[in-house]
Amino acid sequence: MLASLQKELEQRKADGLLRQRRLLDSPQAEHIVANQTPFLSFCSNDYLGLANHPKLIAAMQQAAGASGVGSGASGLVTGHHRYHDDLEKQLAKFVGLPAALLFSTGYMANIGVLGALVGRGDAIFADKLNHACLNDGGYYSLAEFHRFAHNDVAALEKLLQASTAKHKLIAADAVFSMDGDIAPIPEYLALCEQYDAYLYIDDAHGFGVLGAHGKGSLSHFNVRSPRIIMMATLGKAAGVAGAFVAGEPVVIDYLIQKAKSYVYSTPAPPALSATLSESVRLIEAGDDLRANLFEMVTYLKTHLKLEKWQLLPSQTSIQPLIVGDNKAALALSEYLQTQGILVPAIRPPTVPTGTARLRISLSAAHCLKDVQQLVAAIHQAEKVLL
Questions:
Q1: Is 205 a catalytic residue?
Q2: What is the pLDDT of residues 167-187, one digit of tens each?
C-alpha cells in the first residue's frame, strides 16, 4: 500500500497537482510571514480583516479566563455553554431567521444537515460547482443526488418536475468559492414554492460581505421564507472559526436530535463563541470595511488588462484569474512569489480540468497600493512567462 501511495503522489507532482502547505509565522493579515519570508497576501478568506482585530483578541483572552479553553463534552452532555447559546441567538437575529445552531466547521455543518434532513426516498438537487462538503453531504445522506449545470435554473426545474421524491432539497453555494459568482437564490426559492421543495444555502463566502450590514446573501436578495435553511462559516469574514445553520425552529430542534456531526462532536471552546459575538457586532458596524473592500474589487477589475489570461466576471471579493494549464498556473503563482506576493494556484479536482487558475482574495485590509502592486506584477508576468 505504501508503494502505491508514493506512486500516486509522484504522479500528482508530474501532473502539476501536488498540494503543499506553507508554514505561517504571523497572524492572518494583508502582510504575512510564510516560510520565514514576508509576503503581500491575496490568499486569505479573511474578507473584512478581522482575524487579527484587537477587539477580537481581547474578547478571546477575557472569555478564556472566564470559561477555560475547552468544552469538555458534546453539546448534549455538558458542552453547551452560555457563550454558545448567546451566540446562536445573536446569529439568528442578525440574519433574520428564527433559530440557529453552531457547528465546529462548515464541512461538519453541511454533512450533518444534509444527512439529517433527507435520506432514502428523498432527493437533493445540487449545483455542479458546489463546494466539496455539499457534495459529500449529499452522497452520505443516501438520498437521490442530482447535479445540475452551474446556476442553470431551467435545468434544475426539469429535474424537479421529473422527481417523485418524498422530500426535495435544493442545495447550493450562495457565492461560489472558486468562481466568485452568486447563485440565483430568488429563482431557486420560486421553484421551491412551485415544486414543494426546500432551499439549503451555503453562505460561507457571502456572510459578512453581502447584504445590509453584512447579513449575507439572503439579505442581498431580500428574500425570506420558511422554506430556506442557511449555513454560514465563521472563519472567513467573521475572522474566527466555526459555522452555524439557521432556519425554522423545528429544523434546528430536529438537527439537535439527528445531525450526527453535531450530536457526536465536542463543541468549539466557549471562548470562541464569546469572541464571535464581538465579531458579529463588528460585522454589523462594518459598512466602511465593506465599502473599502468593494473599492479594491472595482480597482482590480478596472485596471487588470490581460491578453493571455482571463479574469472571471465576479463582483465579489473572490476574483478568479483563469490560466488554463495546471503547470502554467503554478508558474504564475511562483513568479508572483518572487515578487513578494502570495496568490494560490487552484487546480483540478477543485476546479474543472483545463480551468486551473489563481484565486485572488481581496480584503478590506488591503489598500490601493497593495492592489496596484498586484496588478503591476500580473501585467509583468504576462510578458515574461511563456
A1: yes
A2: 999 999 999 999 999 999 999
